[in-house]
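Here is the promised in-class demo. Please do not try to memorize the tokens; focus on the logic of going from shape to residues.
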């Protein structure tokens, strides 16, 4: 049973996104809003996971994937994004599902984006060769960071780097992690 203090973070993030989107929709009705594009990102991701407080002898270097979908032009440079990532290292798997607002600026040929993400993390410990249920924990997660994109074509961008300070709280212990991703961004809709 969940305590009252455990407010589902995804609902909070969805509420905050709606709170930002409603005034933007009113502006759209007045003709001030661009038709939004949808951007899809996918690529490689690295996670430096603070695992000592879970009983590991050192911090873990975890490799994996990251994917997201964003509406970058809700109003001016303000947009919304949601994404997932998965990272793996030996006996530990870490999955993150988050959403939140983002803001971007264009500088020369680069696009620089900052974001704040809120959601859930799923951490799973595994013992290879075991037939028992693996211990797993779902906890709150938040990330603050940004990305730098370089255009390859009008509808394709190369995400040079996405860096996030990611905080999770697996098995009742707080982890302060660094996540770095790179990959391709595809834009759909009007540009």
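The designed amino acids, position by position:
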């Amino acid at each position: 049973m969940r305590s009252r203090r455990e407010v589902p973070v995804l609902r909070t993030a969805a509420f905050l996104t709606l709170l930002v989107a409603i005034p933007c929709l009113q502006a759209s009705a007045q003709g001030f809003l661009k038709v939004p594009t949808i951007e899809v990102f996918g690529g490689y991701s690295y996670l430096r996971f603070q695992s000592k407080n879970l009983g590991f002898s050192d911090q873990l270097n975890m490799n994996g994937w990251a994917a997201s979908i964003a509406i970058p032009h809700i109003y001016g440079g303000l947009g919304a994004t949601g994404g997932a990532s998965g990272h793996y290292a030996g006996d530990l798997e870490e999955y993150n599902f988050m959403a939140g607002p983002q803001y971007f600026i264009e500088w020369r040929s680069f696009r620089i984006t900052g974001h704040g993400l809120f959601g859930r993390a799923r951490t799973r410990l595994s013992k290879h060769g075991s037939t028992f249920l693996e211990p797993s924990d779902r906890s709150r997660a938040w990330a603050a960071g940004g990305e730098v994109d370089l255009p390859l074509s009008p509808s394709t961008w190369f995400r040079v780097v996405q860096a996030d300070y990611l905080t999770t709280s697996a098995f009742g212990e707080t982890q302060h992690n660094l996540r770095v991703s790179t990959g391709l961004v595809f834009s759909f809709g009007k540009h």
